[in-house]
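User: structure tokens for this one?
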Amino acid sequence: MSEKRITKANRDEFYPPIPTSGTKFWRSNFLYQMFKFFRLNLKIMRIVVKGHS
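Assistant:
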């Protein structure tokens, strides 16, 4: 006879982690997001310029 496994779907491992208040602040801070945006653009431009020289 085979045994049936019962899995409970409401354990903590099945839910995503909840962001902290600090994480929510940095994700919604406009100035910080603009800084990250320009920093990423500068990194991409460095890669492009290196490839064209």
